[in-house]
């Protein structure tokens, strides 16, 4: 493989479908309390051990005294005993409704034990939603410290709780991150950017080599 060039083109997404929306309206449509502090957890299967729900719940247990803390989940399966009020939206495939879920939240929690390059994190960024995720797989490429969110070590519920508390306790920083999330999504992960990268790669492959 040493004689071949490697080009990495990350996933793209529709930054029109996934975009910032009015939070109060999103919450009203989804049945989420308007004045709650909402943490979002998304997984195809909520009980999937690789997605880290046990770590999530241990972290939230430490924060349950936080006023109006609320957990919103999206995916198949059942939520284990939640220490705070919650709403389970079940599986959602419609992009408009998915976008509402991201816009209803204050933070996306991604405490995965194992991960690739999660679309969930990209979708959150495009909606202006900061992410707290495990330092695993491709998550650090998307979740950038003091830019689009925070990273914690895999399985560390104490660190996850601390990161949640820190960001929720600094609303100005959280708002600034929200703006940066949207900017990063548009500038690096839009479908237009993905298409341009492929076009540039194909064009470069069609160029005659210098030795020919």
Describe the 3D structure.
The chain is α/β, with parallel strands linked by helices and 212 residues long. It has one domain: Glycogen Phosphorylase B (Rossmann fold, 3-Layer(aba) Sandwich), CATH 3.40.50.2000. 41% of the residues lie in helices and 15% in strands. It contains 8 helices and 6 strands; from the N terminus they run αβαββαβαβαβααα. A 6-stranded parallel beta sheet has the order 3-2-1-4-5-6, with helices on both faces. The longest helix is centred in the last third of the chain and has 18 residues. It starts with 22 loop residues before the first helix and ends in a 6-residue tail after the last helix. The model has no long low-confidence stretch (mean pLDDT 92).
Q: What is the global morphology?
A: globular
The low-confidence parts are none
Looking at the structure, the CATH topology is: Rossmann fold
The CATH top-level class label: Alpha Beta
Count of domain modules: 1
Tally of helical runs? 8
Mean pLDDT: 92
Q: What is the percentage of strand-forming residues?
A: 15-25%
- Which structural class is indicated by helix and strand composition? alpha/beta
CATH superfamily: Glycogen Phosphorylase B
Order of helices and strands: HEHEEHEHEHEHHH
The proportion of residues forming helix, as a percent range, comes to: 40-55%
E-strand count: 6
For the sheet with most strands, the description reads:
6 strands, parallel
CATH architecture: 3-Layer(aba) Sandwich
Radius of gyration (CA) equals: 18 Å
């Amino acid at each position: 493989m040493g004689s071949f060039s490697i080009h990495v083109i990350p996933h793209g997404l529709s930054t029109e479908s996934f975009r910032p929306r009015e939070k109060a309206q999103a919450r009203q449509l989804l049945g989420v309390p308007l004045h709650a502090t909402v943490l979002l957890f998304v997984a195809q299967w909520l009980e999937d051990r690789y997605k880290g729900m046990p770590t999530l719940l241990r972290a939230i247990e430490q924060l349950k005294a936080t006023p109006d803390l609320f957990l919103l989940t999206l995916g198949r399966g059942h939520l284990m005993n939640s220490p705070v009020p919650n709403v389970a939206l079940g599986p959602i495939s419609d992009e408009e409704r998915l976008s509402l879920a991201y816009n209803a939240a204050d933070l996306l929690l991604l405490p995965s034990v194992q991960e690739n390059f999660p679309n969930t994190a990209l979708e959150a960024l495009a909606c202006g939603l900061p992410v707290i995720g495990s330092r695993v797989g491709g998550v650090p490429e998307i979740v950038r410290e003091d830019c689009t969110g925070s990273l914690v070590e895999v399985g560390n519920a104490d660190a996850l709780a601390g990161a949640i508390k820190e960001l929720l306790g600094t609303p100005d920083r959280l708002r600034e991150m929200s703006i940066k999330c949207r900017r990063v999504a548009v500038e690096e992960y839009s479908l237009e950017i993905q298409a341009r990268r492929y076009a540039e790669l194909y064009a470069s492959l069609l160029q005659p080599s210098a030795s020919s």
